[in-house]
Amino acid sequence: MATWSKPSLIAAVIFLLVSLLSSASVANGGRSGGRRLVRSYDEPCKEMRLYLHDILYDYSNSTSNSTSAAATKPTALSAAVSNPGFFFGRMVVFNDPVTEGRALPPSLEETVVRAQGLYLYDGKVVFDAWFAFTVVFNSTAHQGTLNLMGADPNTEMRDISVVGGTGDFFMSRGVATLRTDAFEGFTYFRLQMDIKLYECYV
Ligand SMILES: *[C@@H]1O[C@H](CO)[C@@H](O)[C@H](O)[C@H]1NC(C)=O
Ligand SMILES: *[C@@H]1O[C@H](CO)[C@@H](O)[C@H](O)[C@H]1NC(C)=O
Ligand SMILES: *[C@@H]1O[C@H](CO)[C@@H](O)[C@H](O)[C@H]1NC(C)=O
C-alpha cells in the first residue's frame, strides 16, 4: 500500500480546504442573487426602531378598530390563582399595524408593515408573556419578513430573538429589544421594538 509523504499530505489537505471554501461561496452567491453575508456580533449590520400597535377586541362594538383577539377562555388555573387571575394560559392572536413613528396609522387595514402572530400569558402571579410573530414588510423600502420569538417577562426592557427572515431580510438574525411605550388598560398597548440584526445579506 502506498503511503503519503508528509508534504504531499499537507498539499492535499490545503487543496481540499480551498476547493470546499470556494464552492461554498459560489453556492451562497448564487442563492442570494449576488448579495453577500455580513456577520459581526460586535456591530449590528442593520438597525430599525418600529412601533407595534395592539388593539384588543374588548367585546364593545369596535370590531373594525380591533387588531387582536383572545383565542382562549380564562383557564381554571388562572381563576384559581387569583381573581380575575393573571390569565395564565390565555392566548391572544394578532395582526397588528407597525409604524416608524408613535402615531396610529390613519387606516389600520392598509398598513404596509404588520406584525402577525400570537402572545400567551405564562405567569401565574405576574404578567409574563411569550411572543411569536412575523413582521411582514410590504413597503417601497422593504419587501420580506422577519420572524421574532421569545419570553416577554414583566420588566421594562426585554430582549427577544430575531430567528430568521425572507426577502430583503433573507437569512437575517439578531435581537429585538422590546419596551412597552404606552398602555391603555387591556384594550391598547404600543410596543417599541429596537431591532438589531447581526447577520444580514447586503
Ligand atoms: C357603538 O359605537 C357608536 C359609534 O362609535 C357609539 O356611539 C356607541 O356608544 C357604541 N356602543 C357601545 C355599546 O359601545
Ligand atoms: C381605535 O383604538 C385606538 C386605541 O384605543 C383609539 O385611540 C382610537 O380612537 C380608536 N378609533 C376608533 C375609530 O374607535
Ligand atoms: C403588497 O402591496 C401591494 C401593493 O399595495 C398589494 O397589491 C399586495 O396585495 C400586498 N401584499 C400583501 C401580502 O399584503
UniProtKB/TrEMBL annotation:
This is Dirigent protein. Dirigent proteins impart stereoselectivity on the phenoxy radical-coupling reaction, yielding optically active lignans from two molecules of coniferyl alcohol in the biosynthesis of lignans, flavonolignans, and alkaloids and thus plays a central role in plant secondary metabolism. Residues 1-23 form the signal peptide. One of its GO terms (cellular component) is apoplast. It comes from the Eukaryota. GO terms for biological process: phenylpropanoid biosynthetic process. The lineage of its organism: Eukaryota, Viridiplantae, Streptophyta, Embryophyta, Tracheophyta. It holds the Pfam family Dirigent. The keyword Signal applies. It comes from Oryza nivara. Belongs to the plant dirigent protein family. PANTHER family: DIRIGENT PROTEIN (PTHR46442), DIRIGENT PROTEIN 5 (PTHR46442:SF6).
